[in-house]
Amino acid sequence: MTALTAVTAASPAAPTRRRRLAPVAALAAGAALILSGCGAGQISQTADQVAAVNGNTADIGTIALRNVHIVYPGTATHTNTAGGQAALALSIINTGETVPDELTSVTTDLGTVKITPAEGDKLEISPSETVVVSTPSAGAETHTTGEAVDTEAGETKAANIEVTGLTQNITPGLTYDFSFNFKENGTVLVQVPVDAGLESPRHESEISKSTTGPAGGH
User: Fold this and answer.
1) Strands (E), the chain
2) Three-class SS state of 199
3) What is the average pLDDT value for the chain, to the nearest integer?
4) Closest by alpha carbon to 179, among 124, 125, 105, 116?
5) What share of the chain is helix, strand, coil (3-state, %, to 5)?
6) Residues whose CB is less than 8 angstroms from the CB of residue 114 and which lie 6 or more positions away in sequence, other chains included
7) For residues 18 and 8, what is the distance between their CA atoms, to the nearest angstrom?
8) pLDDT digits over 174-199, tens only?
9) Taking the CB of the first residue and of the last residue of the chain, which one, N or C, has fewer CB atoms within 10 A?
């Protein structure tokens, strides 16, 4: 009887412990709400970061096109506006081992395309050779003097491809059709995106301003 009495007397302590835990849980929930409130209206570090826009790729025969894109933002020369000029950037790789090829022309509804080889009047791609089409503003490796650079996969040389007499403004976020015509491997159509550039401004509407509030901390 004594043992039974002891068990019966201890049982009211359990609700007491549960009542003590309840205020602790309430305090933890309140702290979480305060922390989340402090975060509201703050602009995180990732808000201003822009993911790099990967250029498109295409393959035809032994020719591989990599990172094909329109250089953006424009420059004093390449304004990317109607009536002006735009520049392409890409790598052209001849994966063949014996047969050279030549990029005879590039066509697009955006305007007239001008191809400027590093040397001579033809843009030829030898077997195992890479041609880097770029401009200094593209941030890609360029060799403006036209020299060839030895690499493990072959040689690399530079060239420029420009679109003149643009029929419309170049708009970031859109793609534009370009046909690359090769003498040996034929024609390949590429939907070319616009490079977002190294930085992109953050735009806020009146609605976003009213909901985010000041960027101060607590």
Assistant:
1) 56-60, 63-70, 86-94, 101-107, 112-117, 123-125, 130-133, 149-151, 154-164, 175-182, 186-193
2) coil
3) 73
4) 105
5) 25, 35, 45
6) 160, 161, 162, 163, 164
7) 18
8) 999 999 999 999 999 999 999 865 44
9) N
Evaluated on CA atoms 207, 213, 215, 218, the torsion sign reads negative
CA atoms of 137 and 167, how far apart (whole Å): 22
pLDDT tens string 7-43:
444 445 555 555 555 555 555 555 544 544 544 444 4
Instruction: Name the 3-class secondary structure at 65.
Output: strand
At residue 145, the 3 state secondary structure works out as: coil
Task: Tell the residue number behind the tokens 């052209």, with chain if given.
Answer: 92
Q: What is the Cα–Cα distance from 41 to 120, expressed in whole angstroms?
A: 58
Is the pLDDT reported for residue 81 higher than 60? yes
Best CA proximity match to 82, nearest among 106, 104, 61, 111: 111
